[in-house]
Amino acid sequence: MTAPAPIPPRVLTVAGSDSGGGAGIQADLKTMLALGTHGMSVLTAVTAQNSLGVQGAWELPAEAVRAQYRSVVDDIGVQAVKTGMLSSAVLVDTVAELLAETAAPVVVDPVGVSKHGDALLAAEALDSVRTKLLPVATVATPNLDEVTQLTGVAVTDEPGMRRAAAAILGYGPRWVVIKGGHLPGAAVDLLTDGSEEHWLRAPRLDNRHTHGTGCTLASAIACGLARGQDVPTAVRGAKDYVTGAIRAGFALGEGIGPVDHGWQTRPGR
């Protein structure tokens, strides 16, 4: 008899769709496949999106989000969950309630704006992110614009990243990754739980095709957690994976191309 195939770690993304395939649900599932996990999805919104920006966005009703989530979690189960674009207070509240009932680590990417500066989160939803979503996060992964949205802290240097981390941790996540990619110099991120710090550095790469980096990092962290890694190990591995994906990013369309989620298996690499 043939032995049954082993079941890979199961990771669920709760996020919006990027029709251009570089970010959102599409980036999450590509990352999960590349890192050897079984990716599953709860779609929260549909966007018309390409390399030039977001041309339109349509939110799904909360009951559709809830039904997708329960369908997956109650039957298949999950070892980690990643959240991305939630867009409204209603969806943030709905997803936070579902996560609070799920015994799995949660990576919250508090998506506020797209790579092109398009708003992806309603202003009235910010308080729900602070008071309901961040408290259920194992790891939160805001970029510097999202830090300012949520806390009012404007980060211009590495000491500012430490202040930003303290402000985000005040809302309740166990760990936070402050992504410092928008600062000059090396690409530095700060991982901390308020007591220990890990400064993660990588060379700044001469490649403008970086669409999907935030989604990809958060998904890669979730993959590590689903494998049973501790948070620092999962984040370091995710940083390495994203650095390679940025290095291999390619032109697509007339604007900013995506990172290459399959960079580890491309011929010649």
Q: Would you give an account of this structure?
A:
The structure is a single chain. The chain is of the alpha/beta class. The chain has helices at residues 24-34, 62-75, 89-100, 126-133, 144-151, 158-169, 213-226, 231-247, and strands at residues 10-18, 38-50, 53-59, 80-83, 106-108, 139-140, 175-179, 187-192, 197-202. It has a nine-stranded mixed beta sheet with strand order 3-2-1-4-5-6-7-8-9, with helices on both faces. Helix 1 (24-34) packs across helix 7 (213-226) and helix 5 crosses helix 6 (158-169). It starts with 9 loop residues before the first strand and ends in a 22-residue tail after the last helix. The mean pLDDT is 94.
Features:
269 residues, alpha/beta, nine-stranded mixed sheet, 20% strand, globular
Order of helices and strands: EHEEHEHEHEHHEEEHH
Overall 3D form: globular
Distance between the termini: 37 Å
How large is the radius of gyration?
17 Å
Strand content: 15-25%
| DSSP helical segment count | 8
Q: Got a strand count?
A: 9
Low-confidence stretches: none
Largest sheet: 9 strands, mixed
